[in-house]
Amino acid sequence: MMTVYEPWNATRGAEIIAEHTHLEGATLVILHALQEAFGYVPEPAIPMIASALNLSRAEVHGVFTFYHDFRHKPAGRHVLKLCRAEACQAAGGDALAARAEAQLGIALGTTTPDERVTLEPIYCLGLCATAPSAMLDGRVVGRLDEARIDALVAEARR
User: Fold this and answer.
1) Number of folded domains that form the chain
2) Is the pLDDT of residue 1 over 70?
3) Are residues 87 and 56 in the same domain?
4) Do β-strands 139-141 and 78-83 pair in parallel, antiparallel, or remain unpaired?
5) Could you tell me which of 122, 5, 135 has the C-alpha nearest to residue 74?
6) Domain contains 105
């Protein structure tokens, strides 16, 4: 299922930040809330967060860049995440990731030019015992092989 996000709006961003400043670990909570609302963390939000939490921009940026889940730009209409943990790599994940990249014409961490599909790495979905795994729009898919990755890519392109 495709997720619909709000367009970036500084007033709405300030509301989201204000709603969470009192919480423990507010930096992470705010970053997640902004991405949930807008589909990414807009660059203008970084100094807003820093100001609200009495942190430096560098501190907020450091948290933002440390975690793989935060995006600098809006994701495509569909997000296909491929497990890149060591167990999935050892079970053939590298070849499957390369296959998905070739089919979509993009590298991991990027979005197709038509903004239909974002291909992202994820680091462990807990299904590594048998074969590589993936996630399409939040739905976990295990036991990946060439046929399953082809089907996921085709579904994401729709």
Assistant:
1) 2
2) no
3) no
4) unpaired
5) 5
6) yes
CA dist list (Å): 17 to 27, 28, 46, 47? 9, 11, 10, 11
Residue for token pair 């450091």: 62
Arithmetic mean of pLDDT, 13-24: 97
> Phi then psi for 80, rounded to 5 degrees?
-105, 115
Q: Give the range of the structural domain holding residue 28, as residue numbers without chain letter.
A: 10-66
Concatenated DSSP letters of 90-105: IIIIHHHHHHHHHHHT
CA 13 to chain centre: 19
pLDDT in tens, 96-144: 999 999 999 999 999 999 999 999 999 888 877 678 999 999 999 999 9
Q: In this predicted model, what pLDDT tens digit does every residue of 59-104 receive, in sequence order?
A: 999 999 998 789 989 889 999 999 999 989 999 999 999 999 999 9
Q: 83 with 152, same domain?
A: yes
Residue 2 in domain: no
